[in-house]
Design brief:
It is found in: Cytoplasm. By secondary structure, this protein is an alpha/beta fold. Helices cover 36% and strands 15% of the residues. It is globular and about 50 Å long.
């Protein structure tokens, strides 16, 4: 059972989606849930079916005290690296909250202090706290929606299905068609990129 709060009322949870992808943005969600909020379905977005995530998203968005979602796109990922881009996406999502949180709960073990508000990093926090789980659902659903949209432009990579992750099908398409403007050029797109032809 996920806990509603960690220490304080008005806590914000934040999490990101798309960190390990070869294409598209890394997307972060931040959310403050009302005191006493409860939901039996809510869990880490990776543990939920697409149908459950899509059912939860409007419910979370309508019941939240405040929520925000932010994409950091491939060019910025390439210039500052994926870890910094993930943290930046979470900071920007927190910037977008209309209410100032009392405290920030962060999924994972890496974060940079957010101005004037204390935070705690919680490993596998999306399976422990409702606000982090809710942020993970928002990040995942908003990112999936974006990847489905750009799929229409480049259907041969099947981003509608693989969402930019390094599936065998996605890598085969890169081998055949090359990279698009949505690919992260700093990422090792194909396994053989590790070998040097000397």
């Amino acid at each position: 059972m996920l806990k509603n709060i960690y220490k304080y009322k008005n806590e914000a949870g934040t999490d990101e989606a798309g960190r390990g992808c070869l294409a598209g943005p890394v997307t972060a969600g931040a959310i403050i849930l009302p005191e006493g909020f409860a939901n039996d379905i809510l869990n880490d977005s990776k543990q939920l079916s697409k149908i459950k995530r899509e059912h939860l998203r409007p419910l979370l968005e309508s019941e939240a005290v405040s929520f925000s979602v932010c994409h950091v796109f491939q060019d910025e990922i390439d210039s500052i690296n994926i870890l910094n881009a993930s943290i930046l996406a979470m900071h920007r999502a927190l910037n977008g909250l209309s209410n100032t949180p009392s405290f920030i709960l962060v999924d994972g073990n890496r974060f940079k202090p957010y101005p004037s508000i204390s935070h705690e990093c919680i490993i596998k926090g999306d399976g422990k706290f409702m606000s982090i789980a809710a942020a993970s659902v928002l990040a995942k659903t908003h990112r999936d929606e974006y990847m489905s949209k750009i799929h229409e432009e480049f259907p041969m990579y099947n981003w509608k299905k693989n969402k930019g992750y390094p599936t065998k099908e996605h890598r085969e398409a890169i081998r055949k068609y090359g990279l698009t403007k949505y690919h992260r050029k700093s990422f090792r797109q194909l396994p053989e990129q590790l070998t040097l032809d000397i």
